[in-house]
Amino acid sequence: KRIIEMSQIEELFGSKSDIHTLAAQHPRPANVVYAYGTSGFRADHKILPAVMVRAGMFAGLRSMVCGLSKDDKEKQENSDRRKCVAVGVMITASHNPEPDNGIKLIDPSGEMLESDWEPYVTEIANAPEAELGKVIQSFATRHGADLSTIPRVFIGRDTRPSSTEFSQLVIKGAQCLHADVIDFGLVSTPQLHWLVREYNAGRTATLDQYYQTVSNAFLQIIKKSDGSYPVFEPLLVDCSNGVGALAMQPLTKSIEKVLRVEMRNTATSGVNHLCGAEHAQKLRSLPLNFDGKKDRLKRCASIDGDADRLVYFYVNQKGDFRLLDGDKIIALCTAYIQDLIKACGLTPRIGIVQTAYANGASTIYMNETLKVPTQCVPTGVKYLHHKAQEYDIGVYFEANGHGTVLIAPSLISSLQSSLQNDNNLDATVRQSMEKLVCLSLLLNQTVGDSMADILLIEVALAHRGWKLSDWDALYEDLPSALLKVIVRDRNLVRTTDAERRCVSPVGLQDAIDKLVSRNSSPNEINVKRSFVRPSGTEDVVRVYAEAATIAEAQDIAKQVCEYVTTYTSMASS
C-alpha cells in the first residue's frame, strides 16, 4: 500500500471534504430510518436523495476494499493510477409503483451485495451529516481500503422519472472518493450485474457484447442437427412500461429470424401500472393492453420494471387466465436439463431451491416425478442463489418469477475438455455437451434475467414440442391464499426451518398445526398447510395458506390472521 499523507485523509473525509459538503446539500429527512435488505434501499423517491449520494460513496468504498482489478494487478502495480475492481449501483425500485425508487448494490462478483456488508451501507445511509466522513473513514480503516487506489463504480438506471436525477447524485457521491465512474444509462438490473461480472473477470463488458453472447448462445442451442431452426409461434411480451422495453429491442432484433417477439406496454412511463410480472402473478389477471378474446390461446409473458422477473401466461379455450409462474419454470427447465445430462451420460449433482411460498404441488412434482431433491431457504433471492451454488447445476426461481440456473465452472471446464480432447464422442453426446456449455453463456450466472430466461423457456418448449397448455399440464397448483396482518411490532414474530415454523410468540405455531390438521382422516393425504413470516420492511406479518379448495385456503388464512393478532397482542402486553 502507498503511504497516504494526513492532509490527503483530511481532504477525503474531513469537515471540508466533498463528502461533508454533498451530505449537507442532501440531508436525511427527519424521522426517516433507512434499511438495506434483499431489495436494497426502496421507498418513495421524495425521501431518497440522501441515500443516493451515500450509496455512491459506499460503492467507492467497497471498490477500494475489494482491491485492484485483474487488469491493474498485471499492468499497473507500479503506476500512480491503480484502479480497483468495479462495483455496481443500479437505480430502480423493480416491481414497485412508479413514484418509488431505490438502489441495488452489486459486488465485484456481479452478485448481490454480500450480506455482511448490508449493515455497513445501512449505517452509512443513516449517519448524521456532520459524522458521515468519519464513519466512512472508519470503515475504510477497519477493512483495509487502500486509499491510494482509484475506486471504480458502474451505474445503471431504470425509466422512472426520478432515476435520471438520482444517477447524477450517485455519480457525485462516488466522485467524493475520486472514483472512476462509468454510467451505462438505461439498462436492466441483470444487465448491470452481467457488466460488473464480465469487467472484473477481464472480459469485454459492453452491452453489445451482452446481446451478442446471449443471442448467439440461444441460436446455437436451438439449431437442429441439420442446421435448421424450429418454427415458433409469436410470443407476446408485457414489458411493464419499464426499462425492459428498451433493453429487449436489440435482443429481439438479433433473434427475429427464429423467434418473433411482439412487445406491449413499452411506454417507459407508468411503470408497473396495471401490468408487469407482479401484476400477472399476484392478481392472476391479464396485464393492460391484453385482451381475453383477441389474445386467447396466444403465448404470453410478462417481465417487471427492471427486467429481472418473468412469468408466462395464456388464456385457455374456456377463457380462463392461466399463470405459469416461477415454480412451473423450474419444472420445465429442470426436465430439459435432465434430458441433456442423460444424453451426455453425465451424473452431476442437480438441485432445486425454493422458498416456503413455492406451491406444494410443485414440490411434490419435483421430488416424485423429476426425482430431483428440493431445498427450502428463507425468502430472498440471495438465499436461493447461494444455496444453488452448492450444486453442479442449481435451479432456483421464486414463485414471482425471479431466478436462473447456475452451472458450476468446474462442470463447464470438464465439458469443454471433453469436447476438445475426445474425438470419439458420439454426435448426440457432443451436441448435448455443446448445448450445456451454451446454456452457461445464455443464462445470467449472477441474478435472475428475464430476457435470458425467456430464451431458456423457449428452448425447453421447443425441445419437447410443447404448447403452453402442455407445460401447464405438468401439475395443477394447490389453491392458496396470501393475507397480511398489521401488528404493533413485527419482531415479536420469529421463525425457523426456512420460515416454515414459528417459534414466537409461544403458542402460535401449535394453534396453526391444530388448524391445518383438523378434519383430516388418518388415511387422507393432508395437503393443508399454513405459515407466517414477518415483513422485512414494515410492521406486517404475512400469512400463507394452501388447501384442497380455494375456499378452505382462504378460511385457513383468515383464521391464522386472527391467531397472529391474538398471540402478538398477548406477547406485547
Task: Please give the structural blueprint.
Layout: H1 6-13, H2 18-25, E1 41-44, H3 49-66, H4 70-75, E2 83-91, E3 100-106, H5 118-126, H6 132-142, E4 150-157, H7 163-175, E5 180-186, H8 189-200, H9 207-222, E6 235-238, H10 244-254, E7 261-264, H11 277-283, E8 299-303, E9 310-315, E10 321-324, H12 326-344, E11 350-354, H13 360-368, E12 374-376, H14 381-388, E13 393-397, E14 403-407, H15 409-421, H16 427-442, H17 450-464, H18 468-472, E15 480-486, E16 494-496, E17 501-504, H19 508-517, E18 529-534, E19 540-546, H20 550-572
Parallel strand pairs: 2-4, 4-5, 6-7, 6-8, 11-12, 11-13
Antiparallel strand pairs: 1-3, 2-3, 8-9, 9-10, 13-14, 15-19, 16-17, 18-19
Distance between the termini: 56 Å
- The order of strands across the largest sheet is 1-3-2-4-5
Number of helices: 20
Helix vs. strand class: alpha/beta
- Cα-atom radius of gyration: 25 Å
Instruction: Report the biggest beta sheet as strand number plus sense, adding barrel if it closes.
Output: 5 strands, mixed
DSSP summary, beta strand count? 19
Question: Low-confidence segments, ≥5 residues, pLDDT <50?
Answer: none
Taken from the alpha-carbon principal axes, the silhouette is: globular
Overall mean pLDDT stands at 94
Helicity level, as a percent range? 40-55%
Please indicate the percent range of residues in DSSP E strands (runs of 2 or more).
15-25%
